[in-house]
Amino acid sequence: MEITLQNIGRRFNREWIFRGIDYSFNEAESYAILGANGSGKSTLVQIVASNLSPSEGNITYTFKGEALEVENVFKHLSFASPYLELVEDFTLTEIIDFHFGFKEYLQGFDNKEIINLLGFEKYRNRCIKNFSSGMKQRVKLALAFCSSSPILLLDEPTANLDNQGIDWYLSLISRFSQNRLTLICSNQEHEYSFCKKRLNVQDYK
Ligand SMILES: Nc1ncnc2c1ncn2[C@@H]1O[C@H](COP(=O)(O)OP(=O)(O)OP(=O)(O)O)[C@@H](O)[C@H]1O
């Protein structure tokens, strides 16, 4: 999967958040999207995910050498962010089944293996609404990691995680970002230190 941004800009009302982004995200590489609070990292990743339209410019997706229609992009990406809501009335095991009603499992994973990866065996029948914010964040990451998709988008991946949770993320990110185009929105070095490529949205004010 390759994603090309041509002269991308986004404004809310009259305020331009960024303009003139020309950039290519190449297959199976890892990118950090950097910038201060409010600089537009989440806005950019929402545009890349095709959840938000750019106010100007073009974005193109190439999958296996062929152009991909914008309306089909969602099928090829996994996304985790603190502002993404989980269905609170589901138990852990139900939410995994629900998620994988729409997505395919990464090879070698199923409901049980994801619960093992989370280390949440004793919480399998607990409702998501009774999970702590850090536990929910781990679930969001595990669902994204274990979905078979060529694009992995993580916005503030260690938000709400304690030191143990951060270590859990760090122990997994290299493995799950391998062979997929990975974008990490962050201003915390530990979250993206493995990314060789960096795009700072503040360079496009
Ligand atoms: N729907 C919206 N309507 C109006 N303004 C918005 C909207 N969404 C975002 N903004 C504004 O766009 C700017 C960029 O927000 P964004 O969330 O992309 O920043 P960020 O770099 O991800 O910030 P943070 O590091 O705090 O998460 C901010 O000024 C924000 O208030």
Brief account:
This protein has helices spanning 41-48, 92-99, 111-118, 133-145, 163-177, 189-192, and strands spanning 2-12, 15-25, 30-34, 56-63, 66-68, 77-80, 151-155, 181-185, 197-200. It is an alpha/beta fold and 205 residues long.
List keywords for this structure.
205 residues, alpha/beta, Rossmann fold, five-stranded parallel beta sheet, four-stranded antiparallel beta sheet, 9 strands, 27% strand, binds adenosine-5'-triphosphate
Query: How many domain modules?
Result: 1
Biggest β-sheet description: 5 strands, parallel
Number of helices: 6
C-alpha end-to-end distance: 28 Å
What is the helix fraction of residues, given as a range? Answer: 25-40%
Q: Give me the CATH architecture, please.
A: 3-Layer(aba) Sandwich
Shape: globular
Which CATH first-tier class would you pick? Answer: Alpha Beta
Bound molecules: adenosine-5'-triphosphate
Main sheet: which strands, in order across? Answer: 6-7-8-3-9
| CATH topology label | Rossmann fold
Q: Which residues form runs of ≥5 with pLDDT under 50?
A: none
Oligomeric assembly: single chain
Tell me the series of helices and strands, N- to C-terminal.
Answer: EEEHEEEHHHEHEHE
Structural class: alpha/beta
How much of the residues is beta strand, in percent?
25-35%
